[in-house]
Amino acid sequence: MLKVIDNTLLDSREVAGKLGISYDTLRKYNTVFYEVGHTFQKVKNKVMYSHSDIEILQQFLSLHKETDYSLRECASFVVTGEISQLGAQSLKTLTKQFEQTKQEQHQLNQALLEQINHHTDQLKGAENVLQQQSQQLEALQKYIDTKLEERDRKLMEVVRDLQEVKAAQQKKWWQFWKK
Q: Is residue 162 one of the residues assigned to a domain?
């Protein structure tokens, strides 16, 4: 936290520099504080900030950075002094959100495990079907090979028989006129 040792008042540009924000952002924050009922001291038509004002702004900035409250809510909490209650409430809220997120993550993990198991079972089933089809194809190929060999053997027998018959039926040239 910034410390202002004496009761010196600082102008907007000095305070913005010490808080690490732009001058325009500080003016915007002034508007928010005005809306919740807190005004800063004016000297010669300039806004001036005291030590307590700087502390309020620091609390406001840290609350706004640490929570997801709006600017107006943060300013209201700081001005009304509810910031200590807000810390306990934020802790309860964060704990509840953490537990809820943890439970949702557990449910998601369970659902994913079920899907993985389901897909694993489907893959095993597909492997079994594929193995059965592979065995059927092998059996079919053996059957086809066996039938082709048998056909070729029978065909060769028929060709030999025809050659024998033809040779037996062929008449010698001198027996051409004989029946």
A: no
Q: Are residues 36 and 75 in the same domain?
A: yes
DSSP-derived 3-state class of residue 10: strand
Q: Is the pTM of this model over 0.85?
A: no
pLDDT in tens, 93-146: 767 787 888 899 999 999 999 999 999 999 999 999 999 999 999 999 999 999
The answer to whether residue 121 sits within a structural domain is: yes
Q: Does 66 lie in the same domain as 107?
A: no
| H runs (alpha helix) in 71-82 | 71-80
Half-sphere exposure of 117 (CA within 13 A, CB side): 6
Domain residues for 141?
100-157
- pLDDT value for 4: 41
| Domain-terminating residue out of 46, 81, 116 | 81
Q: Pick the closest to residue 63 from 73, 53, 49 (CA basis).
A: 73
> Is there a domain that residue 45 lies in?
yes
Tokens 């300013």 found at? 75
Q: Are 15 and 54 in contact (CB under 8 A)?
A: yes
Torsions phi, psi for 3 (to 5 deg): -120, 130
pLDDT at residue 7 is higher than 70: no
What distance in Å separates the CA atoms of residue 48 and residue 33, rounded to the nearest whole number? 14
